[in-house]
Design a protein that fits this description.
heterodimer; A: alpha/beta; 8-stranded antiparallel sheet; 32 strands; B: mainly alpha; Four Helix Bundle (Hemerythrin (Met), subunit A)
């Protein structure tokens, strides 16, 4: 079956490639469709199926065509086989039959010939015997002298001859013709079964006349010819009937008429003395007679003389009889002819003689009455001529006589003087008839068998290929389905791409809405009702923006557009900030947020900080959402790939870390040697919460888009289910994995690892060392306390923990009160029983002059009443000996803070307390201790130190991002100062103006003409250098800036900008010199600039180069960096990076947005002390000009402070504020100018 | 009264149509806002400056593109300048064409540049025409004793 299959394939391919297939297809299409329709009985599949089926029609037709082809081939094959079989069979049969037939014919012909031969032989023998007998008799009666002797001779002769004649029944006649003319003959008439003795009348003969018998006479032949005998009228012939058996005379002799005379051999027939043969006819028989004649020599004399001639006549009818018999058994015709063509014997009953007037004559074969013989003779004559050469034998197999085919064979019997030709004609039918019939039957059988095989074969093919065609159909369907799926995926991808492209367009209006709402909120004229409505709208807008951002993030990831940054960042800081951020939210939920980072995490890591931040913020957000009480712990450690080999070293809490993860990491470590070349680190994290947990069946699916652990949670907690999906895609993008793992306690435990690049410097976090330090942890959060204390102990820092005020005082008294001599008794029962605590105590006692740091959670104080003041006061006695650190939360009211700060030595930190803060705290404490000692020596107050410590903490908190502003704000609000009220006024004013810019048209049709004087004051006194080559922009920018009160100097290119700057720097330094010298000489013509607006593309020297130049000369002069703001028509991210990279401080795109420009300038100029303008001290907005600072931050901070002002600064952190904070961050990461 | 009102409405309609057709954007509105009594012809000045500058730049671009060896950086610079000033004046469509033109310059696609130069010229003359009409209308209004209406930002 293999061959047809391959054939089929070949055929198929040919069909498909050629146009024939197409035409076939088109021709057969309707039929195929009908069939399919029949197939598709199931209505449910309906149109889809038909659609798919129509598509796979082509393959279906190819199958059909292939089938047809196989069938045709099979038919051809079988037909060929049939024909060949038939042909060979027939040929061989015919050949063998022919051979057989030849033998048969030969045999058939041989027998009559033999008979003939026999007859001839016997005739010859008889003749010879007769001759001998005659000779004997003649010798006996030699020279009969007398008549009597003569007669006696004749009598004897007659007897002898009779004996001979009687013994041979087949003989027709024996004649003896004496020299003297006497004739004796016996004749047997076979027809009438009579036997006669014939003799001639003796009267005419004289014994003496021997003349004619001379040899001379013989040569003249006179009187010896038959004619002479027959024609011898003078002679009278007698005939007497004889008894055929005895030979007795039974009748009277009677003369016979000449025409009844039998043929008597004469001397003429034996001229040479040799036996001669000829065929004779007689009227007594209807068959030719064979007569032989022999001379009888005179035995007495030496010279040869013939005394008599003996003739023997035999009828040939017996041959004919034999032939008849033969032909009866077989079939066909046999005849013998003389060489001249006269018929001697036939197997038919056709007469051999014709009666003519001269008596019966022989018939030629061509004149035979039998048509077959006649035709055969004619055919032979026409083929070979009338004269067949002696000895020539003919075998013809396909002689067509009449309408039939005959076999014809001739044989030649060479008798002296009587050559005989035998012809046998056998109808072909007789021999080949059966064979032909058989062959015909065989053919029919073969053909019918072939047809059967063909039909069966076709059915087989149909059945066999049915499976194939079905499979092909299915495959075609599958292909079409795949195609459809691919299309669907592609369209989905288009959608994602579209969304990703739309991101900006979608977010911009949202940002506008939010920004406008903020402005609206800051409007004083709103009624309370309006205000709350606006707040609601804002909240909703943030929710919408958040949702948008998530969807866009997801689509960005899906469309493959998201690219990860690779910058160095401080992971610890990022996470700490995150925890800070969320702790506010958590504390409302009574949930503890704990950050537990292992010491082995490197300080700096390469990666995408924004995305890492996003991952954790999503995870924590998720945890918070589902955790109503308890804690959320973020654990992190670095899985050093080398240490995978000895996994036993891992601490117990990390052994839980997914085995699968570890093996995976191991694999990566093993099979990727470039791992270390890439300098990648595997950072593992766990986010552990005590929330409602996720059902185990959902562990995989929660990471899918729009999936949530429990559908009911949507009702309860809201959310789209996109958060975790984004997390997973981000984690995967960072080469990591995330999953949910089993946890013994209630809640969810998420594990993830990230592959991040290691930084070149391998400094680890928390590698500070605090010898000789004692920490007393008195905080409420048990988890946090436990983690910190464990870690501190590991750092060899003695730690004592308590969660109660009472316990704290106990410990403090024990530790620090030198007056109490009964130290061991000082503990109450519950505390004294604690052996580890005691041991710790003894350890601490062993330390020489340790630094005591007491960390107290503000929650330990009894804030419900005024008792807390008492409590604070009770601690006063320890202030000399220990540093006190207060952990405040955002709900802590300002009186308490004021009270805390009253005690100069107090360090105030906000919750949550994590390792980084702890280190900072300890460092400050240690330093404070040293300072304190110094102060004691120099007898200065503690106030300054306290300020410094506070400042340092504030700096630490605020150094990186603005989210720290809360904590820093709190610090600053602690600071009493009359500047704050003024500042708030100013901010308010500024805000109003901004608000008016945005909606000036609403208020007044021509606001530009009478803009408020406040607006001018915003940049009042600022001197700005504008480097811009396009005059148009020069004018516009000047106009904008002058409108807000700034003084603008314009230079057309970078070179002049640099020159102007250099002039300014030189003037400044000379001024400084002159100040030092004490002779104040004014240099009014050299303007000083507070800020440079720098176009990036300028002739002669572009903005980048100019900036580099300026920065260089500044460092040469030792002057502070002047803020430089880039102005460019490029709106690409890369341009911003480039700008910031060369040392510019901010970046503005053309067209110039006046509000943005003003706010940027404001931001950059207000936080630097400018003795020239003297305005900056008014506004103190605490934002560092760090590169990360966004230009909208000013706006935002202003909003916040405005809000604070509005709410009296008491409950600044309203719910919506907390809400928007993470979002702000998430959106900030990838789109800078979204919010403004 | 009716003449002023009619002119006023005409002007408002016309400027609205300019914004609607996307010929001008909000930047033009900002520009209008910057105009005050101290400088009543500020916008006109700026726009005239823009015309002068743009025509110079267009000429230079045309010349530069006709050279045997086109200096694409130079063309790009000019286009960039034109883009900057167009965006500053609020000629949005000119600005958009400039953006596309720049990308052709970066690709060094001479056919694209030629095509976009024509395009740019079209857009430029369109905006010029429109702005001139606008100023004429304003002048008419002012001479009729009306005041220039405010432009609403979109």
């Amino acid at each position: 079956m293999a061959t047809p299959l391959t054939l089929k394939r070949v055929f198929e391919s040919i069909c498909i490639s050629s146009g024939i297939a197409g035409s076939w297809r088109s021709r057969r299409a309707p039929r195929g469709r009908r069939m399919i329709r029949k197939d598709a009985a199931d209505q449910q599949q309906g149109d889809e199926f038909q659609h798919a089926a129509a598509r796979c029609l082509s393959s279906y037709y190819s199958v059909f065509v292939a089938r047809l082809a196989i069938m045709i081939m099979l038919a051809i094959l079988i037909g060929l086989l049939t024909v060949l079989t038939w042909h060979f069979t027939r040929v061989y049969t015919t050949k063998s039959l022919d051979t057989l037939a030849y033998g048969l014919r030969y045999e058939l012909l041989q027998r009559p010939l033999l008979r003939m031969w026999n007859i001839v032989n016997s005739t010859a023998e008889i003749t010879a015997a007769q001759v001998k007998l005659s000779e004997y008799v003649i010798k006996r009666y030699n020279k009969p002298a007398t008549q009597a002797e003569q007669i006696q001779l004749y009598e004897v002769m007659r007897d002898v001859t009779w004996a001979m004649f009687a013994s041979r029944k087949a003989l027709n006649a024996i004649t003896i013709n004496y020299k003297n003319g006497f004739v004796q003959a016996f004749h047997r008439d076979h027809r009438s079964n009579n036997t006669f003795y014939i003799y001639s009348d003796l009267s005419n003969y004289s014994i003496g006349t021997s003349g004619p018998y001379d040899s001379n006479l013989i040569s003249s032949r006179e009187g010896w010819n038959d004619q002479s005998i027959k024609g011898n009228i003078s002679a009278i012939w007698y005939r007497e009937p004889l008894d055929p058996i005895t030979g007795e005379k039974i009748g009277k002799a009677s003369p016979i008429p000449p025409d009844d005379l039998i043929n008597i051999a004469g001397i003429s027939q034996v001229p040479d003395g040799v036996a001669s043969w000829h065929v004779a006819v007689s009227k007594f028989t209807n068959s030719p007679l064979l007569s032989a004649a022999l001379p009888v020599w005179d035995p007495t004399t030496s010279n040869k003389s013939i005394v008599a001639v003996v003739g023997v006549t035999t009828a040939l009818s017996s041959v004919g009889q034999l032939m008849k018999e033969l032909v009866e058994v077989h079939s066909g015709h046999i005849y013998l002819t003389s060489q001249e063509g006269y018929l001697l014997a036939t197997s038919t009953n056709a007469p051999l003689l014709t009666n003519s007037s001269t008596g019966p004559n022989l018939v030629k074969a061509v004149d035979s009455d039998n048509p077959v013989i006649q035709m055969g003779a004619q055919w032979l004559q026409s083929e070979y001529g009338s004269k067949v050469p002696p000895g020539h034998v003919i075998h013809v197999q396909n002689a067509k006589l009449g309408h039939k085919q005959y076999y014809m064979d001739t044989f030649f019997l060479n008798l002296k003087r009587l050559p005989i030709v035998g012809v046998i004609i056998i109808p072909r039918e007789y021999i080949m008839g059966k064979a032909d019939e058989r062959a015909y039957k065989t053919l029919i059988i073969l053909i019918s068998a072939s047809v059967c095989i063909l039909v069966i074969g076709c059915i087989c093919i149909l059945i066999l290929t049915n499976g194939v065609s079905k499979e092909m159909k299915l495959r075609a369907e599958l292909i079409s389905h795949l195609d459809a799926r691919r299309k669907a995926e592609a369209s989905n991808n288009y959608k994602s791409q579209f969304l990703a492209n739309m991101s900006h367009e979608l977010r911009t209006p949202m940002a506008a809405i939010i920004g406008l709402l903020e402005i609206l909120k800051s409007d004083d004229q709103l009624t309370n009702e309006q205000y709350s409505t606006v707040c609601q709208i804002k909240k909703s807008s943030y929710a919408l923006l958040r949702l948008l951002n998530r969807i866009l993030d997801l689509s960005k990831v899906e469309s493959g557009k998201m690219e990860l940054e690779n910058t160095e960042f401080d992971l610890q800081k990022e996470l700490e900030e995150l925890v800070d951020m969320f702790s506010v939210q958590c504390s409302n939920h009574n949930v503890e947020t704990v950050l537990d980072l292992s010491d082995n995490i490197p300080r700096n890591i390469r990666g995408d900080p924004g995305r890492v931040f996003q991952i954790f913020s999503n995870l924590i957000n998720n945890s918070i959402k589902f955790t109503s009480s308890g804690h959320i712990i973020i654990r992190g450690w670095c899985e050093n790939l080398d240490t995978f080999k000895n996994a036993a070293e891992f601490p117990t809490d990390r052994k839980k870390f997914g085995r699968a993860f570890r093996t995976k990491l191991k694999q990566q470590a093993n099979n990727a040697m470039n791992f270390r070349e890439d300098n990648k680190l595997a950072l593992c994290f766990e986010v552990d919460d005590t929330g409602c947990g996720i059902d185990q069946s959902k562990w995989e699916t929660v990471f899918e888009s729009f999936e949530q652990g429990d559908p009911s949670t949507t009702r309860k907690h809201g959310g789209t289910g996109l958060g975790l999906s984004i997390v997973r895609t981000l984690v995967n993008k960072m080469g990591g994995e995330i999953k949910v793992v089993k946890k013994n306690s209630p809640g969810t435990l998420m594990q993830l690892y990230l592959l991040l690049g290691a930084s070149s410097e391998s400094k680890q976090i928390y590698d500070a060392d605090f010898p000789n330090t004692v920490v007393v942890l008195a905080t409420v959060g048990s988890m946090e306390r436990m983690i910190i204390s464990q870690w501190l102990r590991k750092k060899k820092v003695s730690t004592l923990e308590t969660s109660e005020w009472h316990g704290l005082t106990q410990i403090l008294r024990e530790l620090l009160d030198p007056i109490s001599p009964v130290s061991s008794n000082g503990f109450d029962a519950p505390y004294s029983s604690r052996e580890p605590l005691k041991a710790e105590m003894t350890n601490i006692k062993a330390l020489i002059d340790p630094v005591y740091v007491v960390v107290i959670d503000i929650a330990l104080l009894d804030l419900s009443s005024d008792l807390w003041r008492e409590q604070l006061n009770s601690l006063d006695i320890f202030h000399r000996k220990a540093m006190f650190a207060w952990v405040v939360n955002h709900q802590t009211t300002s009186p308490i803070k004021t009270e805390l700060s009253r005690e100069g030595q107090n360090i105030v930190v906000t919750k949550p307390l994590y390792k980084g803060k702890m280190i900072q705290l300890l460092e400050t404490a240690v330093r404070g201790k040293i300072l304190g000692m110094q102060n004691r020596i120099s007898s200065t107050t503690n106030e300054g130190n306290g300020e410094e410590i506070r400042g340092s903490i504030a700096n630490y908190s605020a150094s990186k991002h603005q989210k720290f502003r809360k904590c820093s704000f709190e610090f600053s609000s602690i600071c009493p100062g009359e500047s704050s009220s003024r500042r708030e006024d100013l901010i308010h004013t500024m805000f109003r103006e901004r608000h008016q810019i945005g909606s000036s048209r609403r208020d007044q049709p021509c606001s530009s003409s009478n803009s408020s004087s406040n607006q001018k004051r915003i940049l009042e006194g600022l001197r700005i250098l504008l480097a811009e080559d396009t005059p148009l922009i020069q004018i516009v920018a000047c106009k904008i800036l002058e409108k807000v009160g700034a003084t603008v100097s314009v230079v057309p290119d970078g070179l002049q900008a640099v020159e102007a700057l250099n002039r300014m720097l030189a003037a400044e330094s000379s001024r400084r010199r002159s100040l030092l010298q004490g002779s104040p000489s004014e240099t009014p013509d050299t303007p000083r600039f507070d800020l440079i607006l720098m176009d990036c593309q300028m002739p002669k020297m572009d903005g980048y180069e100019a900036t580099i130049e300026i920065r260089k000369s500044e460092s040469e002069h030792g002057a502070r960096n002047i803020p430089i703001v880039a102005l460019t028509a490029h709106a690409m991210n890369a341009d911003e990076k480039k700008c910031l990279g060369v040392g510019m401080n901010a970046y503005l795109t053309k067209p110039i947005d006046s509000e943005r420009m003003v706010s940027t300038i404001l931001r950059l100029t207000k936080n630097m002390p400018s003795e020239a303008t003297g305005t900056t001290s008014l506004v103190h907005i605490r934002f560092m000009p760090a590169p990360q600072a966004r230009h909208y931050s000013c706006m935002y901070s202003v909003c916040i402070e405005e809000q604070l002002r509005r709410k009296g600064g008491q409950d600044a952190k309203t719910a919506d504020d907390d809400d928007e904070q993470p979002q702000r961050w998430a959106s900030e990461c990838d789109d800078d100018d979204v919010l403004i | 009264m009716d003449a002023v009102t009619r002119l006023h409405r005409q002007l408002v309609d016309y400027s609205n149509s300019l914004f609607q057709e996307g010929i001008l954007d909000n930047q033009f509105g900002h520009l209008q806002q910057l105009q005050d009594e101290s400088n009543p012809d500020f916008v006109a000045e700026v726009v005239n400056l823009y015309f002068k500058d743009s025509e110079r730049l267009l000429n230079e671009i045309t010349v530069a593109l006709d050279q045997q060896n086109v200096d694409f950086t130079k063309v790009g610079g000019h286009v960039h300048q034109l883009k900057g000033s167009s965006s500053s004046i609020g000629a949005q469509r000119v600005n958009n064409v400039c953006t596309a033109f720049r990308s052709f310059c970066e690709e060094k696609n001479i056919e694209g540049c030629q095509q976009y130069l024509q395009h740019l010229k079209q857009e430029y003359y369109l905006v010029k025409n429109k702005l001139q009409t606008l100023f004429q209308l304003q002048q008419q209004l002012l001479s009729a004793g009306g005041s220039i209406p405010a432009y609403e930002m979109r």
